[in-house]
Amino acid sequence: MRSDHCEDCVLSERRAFLREVTAWLAAAALAPLPIRFGRATLIRGSDLTYPIPAADGATIDHDNQLILVRFQGKAYAFNLSCPHQNTALRWHPEDGQFQCPKHHSRYTPDGVFISGRATRSMDRFAVKRDGANILVDLDRLFRQDQDAADWNTAFVTT
Length: 158
Known about the structure:
13 strands; five-stranded mixed sheet
């Protein structure tokens, strides 16, 4: 009888450990992205150059109406405006999401639409990698509902 009791203890300890690890991983995945404000380091016509962020986070460039995001090994450049009615999006660290303050459309850090009045994900600019920099082409903006293939590939691997 005692050996059954010890076996139950081991199983209980394993379950507790797995619960703790799962909770930790979930919390790490939802950790807020740090938000910074910045500007392009080089502007050539409609091409902007930014350093690729060293860690996950977002850089908001108000002058160029752009959000540069590094998230889970990829870097994206988004239009600062909500695709619904062009209101500037805001980052809500407590939810780990971008949100439109006007009609409360919500988006994941990689720009995917979650809920709200918008009918599509955040608009992505065409990007390419240039060494330690990301080049953003302001003349090439992709809408998920009209340019799905280009929208899905509008990122660089960090």
